[in-house]
Sequence to fold (175 residues):
Amino acid sequence: MSGHSHWQNIKHRKQRKDRRRGKLFSKLADQISTAVREGGKDIDFNPELRSAIEEAKEHNMPKENIERAIKRGAGEGDYIRKNQVLEGYGPGGVAFLIKIETDNKNRTLSEIRKIFENFNCSLGEAGCTAYIFKESEPQFNIDVNKETKHRVQEMLDILEQHEDVENVFTNANFN
Fold:
């Protein structure tokens, strides 16, 4: 006897398939929500939403998941997007002030924290860099060398590409 049961093999295959399907459904739900935020929830006037819903249906995404994604994108029910300010220090001690709008504060905070950790930097507590910025303009700048400039610019680009980030401010002087 080989030591493996038929049920264990089926179980492991099903788990892999379910993980892939869950990732796909998350991606499709994000596409639907983004289409609603950008063009409204009427599929007659929003071709991006229409195609996102058609793609979700092609992949057998449940109707309830599609409706939930539409509500999340429209900011209805428990899916209201909230504004928040995150603060931290980047490469070379450069201060960052990040304005976000999210429907899931914990998820966004975790993702932004991971970006900072990838650059060996850290998010700070509320107010840790706010004193540096007055109306989003830095009160004083930090001169950065060529290497630090590259790392700060790379970090800025990654932060600005995040879907929940509205604005990123820094006090780095790139001259």
